[in-house]
Amino acid sequence: MIDGLIAGRLIGDPEQRQGKGDSSYVVARVRAQSSEGEPLMVNLIAFDEVPCSVLLALRDGDSLAAAGHLNPKVWTDKQGNTKPALDLVAHRVVSTGAGF
Fold first, then answer.
1. ∠ CA(23), CA(27), CA(44), 5° rounding?
2. CA Rg, the chain, in Å?
């Protein structure tokens, strides 16, 4: 696994979902930039209480930084172009929005 830190802006509001049993988690999408200035989509998921609470206090367009385990991927857009993406299991989330 790759440990990483990403920074960017939320695309849409984070969503809380139910896992197995009584567990819940939060998912969000973040637009970051690559070193070349290209947009990079990050699919973020958090399981721990603190990062989940921080995410749920944020809204579409808010800036944030998240640290955790990264998994690089590639996806294909509607025109058939391949684009890079990342999945991040967030262990820490910080933001200047919502009082954090």
1. 120
2. 14
Rounded to an integer, what distance in angstroms lies between the CA atom of residue 45 and that of residue 86?
11
Per-residue model confidence as pLDDT tens digits over 38-56? 889 999 999 999 999 999 9
Using DSSP bridges, classify how beta strands 15-18 and 24-33 pair: parallel, antiparallel or unpaired.
Answer: antiparallel
d(CA 47, CA 44): 10
- Model confidence at 84, pLDDT cuts 50, 70, 90, reads confident
What is the Cα–Cα distance from 1 to 68, expressed in whole angstroms?
Answer: 10
pTM: 0.86
Mean pLDDT (the chain) is 91
